[in-house]
Amino acid sequence: MLLGAVLVLLLLGGAGPASAHAALDSTDPGDGTVLQRAPRHVTLTFSESVGLRDDSFRVLDPGGHRVRTGEAGHADGRSDTARVGLPAQLGEGTYTVAWRVVSADSHPISGAFTFSVGQPSTTTAAVDTGPSEDPLTATLNKVARYLSYLAAALLIGIAAFVVLCRPPDASALRRPLVAGWWTLLGATLALLVLRAPYEAGTGPADALDAGALADTLTTRPGVLLLARLVLLAPVALFLVRLGRADRHREHRPRTAAVGAVLALALASTWAAAEHASAGIQVPLAVASFVLHLLATAVWLGGLVALLVTLRAAPDAATVARFSRIALVSVTVLVATGVYQSWRGLGSWQALTGTTYGRLLLAKVALVTVLLAAAAVSRRWTAALATARTPVRQRERERVTEPVPAGGPPPPEPEPAEPAPPTPDDPSTAADDLRRGLRRSVLAEAVVAAVVLVVTTVLTSTLPGRAADEAARAVPAGGVLPASVTTIPFEIGGSGRGTVQITLDPGRTGDNAVQAVVFGPDGALAAVPELRLSFTLPDKDVGPIEARLVDRGGYWSANTLALPLPGTWTMRTTVRVSEIDQVSAERRIRIER
């Protein structure tokens, strides 16, 4: 079953690179801008907090040579920014900035953009964002993530089964508990050593770099993985105590409390490193994720424990207790799952229009099948509980004749030959019910393994809400879906100048505006004033003024709201002197 789940994971998760939660909101300088003076810094702003690497920035000059930069850091202490200092003197031409950061949910993202000093170069350096993802490293990382989820379900779920369901003999559950502990240890170590090559997009051989591993231990994902490793020590002690508490029932409440604290701590190491740690309502999302993970572990790990128990020492009371606990777990799963789906999707369109939404639909379908199998198991459980009529109980109910005091003892009954089992024999019926219950629980466990696979892929997929943010921001590859328009204008008898206007993203809603004025010689021209307005004649909308601000070499407006799609008229007014100004118009298409 484990091998099949890993194969499904490779098929679902190996098709493309992992997408992260953070989206690039803006760059300073803006992509494609032409500056009169060289900037002192490059600053990126993201939708979520990001982590920085030693090579988070690579700046290439017009000839493609790397520019020596300062150390990357956060701007003004804001964790959702990345900034690097530039040399004091940058020559004229177009510069390329390639960047790579780590999203708050532990996945790396990268991109590139260009800006020009003085005037654009006739040729620019190729935009190279570095390796996006090494296939082998990414596959190993996905497998290790899946195994860590599976091991957590075994550890937490089987331990909860022993404490809450109180099987008469829990000795058969020691082996899966130990297997879960060692699997979680190995998977966590693998994730820790693979962290550096995964972030850098390099092969797994780089996992042997001691310096890179030391750097990993200073990052948030590395600290959380290290915390998980540290927690495994008290978990091992708890497993030993769990065996003793099974023999000494008076210790069970204390053992249950210790186990609950350890389970919460373990679950938190996932919650603080996954999608719950970024986006909206982070505290509520982290709490929801912890409850979701614990409920999943209690249910799915409990299924494995139930299978082992049914084979080793079947007990109807234990089965009935687990049935009630599983019902509570399913209720928690549904409640937290609905909230997390709303938080991750953001809109109904994202349910079918994004990879995250389609994976979520697949998970819902599988969970529906899982619930159907669980309903069958509950019916088997109810039938098993009502069919238990032990032979000894019937013997106790047998009425014997009273014997007078002092009389002779009653004669010993003749030993009867055991009757062959019949379909009406309660013991035979109970055995049939146990076999049926084992089959239905096995079906639950198989579907649950696939659900864990889809969950693993889902946690490394860009949520629908973040995908919508990324679509409205600068894409990772640095190719802007912006609308660029050049408007010529006459400068009296001096010749003809041009205004290059960029709308980003050039769609309905909020847009950023950048405008650069060039003189007759093609060089940047300083003008006293530049005005820009937009009108939609078909809908009688406008004029809408773009409040342009002189940025020293170019003009910009951070926000321009264009409410409707259609063909807009863009009117530009350039004041070329204290008394002279000229206006020109262009029609541009704005998409939804």
Can you give a write-up of this model?
The protein is of the alpha+beta class and 592 residues long. It has 13 helices and 18 strands.
Could you give a short description of this structure?
The chain has 592 residues and is α+β, with helices and mostly antiparallel strands. It contains 13 helices and 18 strands. Helix content is 46%, strand content 20%.
Q: Helices and strands in order, then pairings?
A:
Blueprint: H1 2-13, E1 24-28, E2 34-35, E3 41-46, E4 50-51, E5 57-60, E6 66-67, E7 81-85, E8 93-103, E9 108-117, H2 135-165, H3 174-200, H4 210-216, H5 220-247, H6 252-271, H7 282-312, H8 316-345, H9 349-353, H10 355-387, H11 391-396, H12 426-459, H13 464-472, E10 483-490, E11 496-504, E12 509-518, E13 529-536, E14 541-546, E15 549-550, E16 555-562, E17 566-575, E18 581-590
Parallel strand pairs: 2-9
Antiparallel strand pairs: 1-3, 3-7, 4-8, 5-6, 5-8, 8-9, 10-11, 11-12, 12-16, 13-14, 13-17, 15-16, 17-18
Rounded to the nearest angstrom, the distance between the terminal CA atoms is: 47 Å
Outline type: elongated
Total number of helical segments? 13
Low-confidence stretches: 1-20, 389-401, 416-424, 473-482
Sheet/helix structural class: alpha+beta
Task: Tell me roughly what share of residues is in helical segments.
Answer: 40-55%
Beta-strand share of residues:
15-25%
Give the mean pLDDT. 74
Largest sheet: 6 strands, mixed
Radius of gyration: 34 Å
Number of strands: 18
